[in-house]
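Limitations

Structures in this collection are predictions, not experimental determinations, and the ligand pose is part of the prediction. Treat each record accordingly. The example that follows, with nicotinamide-adenine-dinucleotide as the small molecule, is included so readers can see exactly what is and is not provided: the inputs are given verbatim, and the output is the predicted complex.
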Amino acid sequence: MANLFLSPRKILSGKEALETSGLYLKELGSKALIITDNIMVSTGKVQKVTKVLEENAIQYKLWPGINSEPTDEMVYQGIELYSEAGCDFLIALGGGSPIDAMKAIGALITNKGSLTDYMGKELKKTIPNLVAIPTTAGTGSEATQFTIITDTKNNVKMLLKGAVLMPSLAIVDPGLTITSPATVTAATGIDALTHAVEAYSSRKAQPLSDVFAMSACKRIFGNLRQAYINGSDLEARNQMALAALEAGIAFNNSSVTIVHGMSRPIGALFHVTHGVSNAMLLGACLKFAVEGEGTEARFADIAKTIGIFKEGMTAKDASWELIKEIDKLCSDLHIPTLKDYGVARDEFFNNIDKMADDALISGSPDNTRRKPNKDEITEIYKSLWI
Ligand SMILES: NC(=O)c1ccc[n+]([C@@H]2O[C@H](COP(=O)([O-])OP(=O)(O)OC[C@H]3O[C@@H](n4cnc5c(N)ncnc54)[C@H](O)[C@@H]3O)[C@@H](O)[C@H]2O)c1
Ligand SMILES: [Fe+2]
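Predicted complex:
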């Protein structure tokens, strides 16, 4: 079987990547809509971007309008601003939220219609150039053909896809992640780990995605605790920024599986941030998935890569050792429970049926080597309260 492999057209990574990006930005257009949030303005990161644009005679319109995970309403607002200001390309600065918003705005500028028209379909028409500048080390959205936008009418996180959503330029500069608060560092770091583990253990894994998934796992286990404890450790931040990028490339060319499938409904209904809802589910889902055909061997590979495999262990032993290690990492990073997060138990239980349906409709759980049915998904949701 042949495998297609996609990545951003250009990736500029490493310390001071942003300062040196003018040459590449100039090739992409003459007026950019900068999509970002208020924190990027107040922490001075937007000014770093506008400085590079001004030095290179690129005009811009600034829009700090993505102050939560992106919704359909924000996307429609962004499209209007883009046309009114006469922009010809897009720059997103921030976490996955501004980057995903940028992709959806770009998509509808040429593909037209409404976001729901493209659910479950592939976006085909070429869209304006996209520049992704991540400030969290997590989503990998700078290197994926996906965007996740909340449909505010139906309380569903829509997953839209298409190779045209792949950024033309990803600027992965660890200096931009230094101010990321510890809670965000933890949640986004676990998001990246979830991408890597899911990509490696997915039915859709391919030899090239495996390389990126493994490298990401190694960097995350080697550096996430340090980035969490000491946010100003630039080398740990650099390793995490690279890991998130690699994990994004990995799942983009393989897939996510049960964790992401079950995580999006929790985010859509209870506004738990993406990385946190993944982290809440990770242990329980891996304990379910480990019984899938061939999964133990894959989990054992990860255990070897991160250095926890001991001589004499079977693949089964190594898999459970990995699951234990991941649980320990989540605990060291103080990942909250649903209760800690303020979710009401009754409300959660009343919505399990809808969440299980939405998880299955997304298609992601089917990529797990042990395909879950609705009852099994329901049991995993329930187990989050024990
Ligand atoms: N497209 C994809 O492939 C993909 C993959 C995974 C997740 N996602 C999506 O990404 C979104 C989540 O993105 P996220 O986890 O990066 O969070 P986010 O973009 O929502 O940011 C979380 C918070 O951290 C703040 N923040 C970000 N960087 C900071 C920094 N350097 N310093 C200080 N504060 C900072 C933001 O202002 C925000 O308040 C979700 O909508 C999720 O569905 C997309
Ligand atoms: Fe994710």
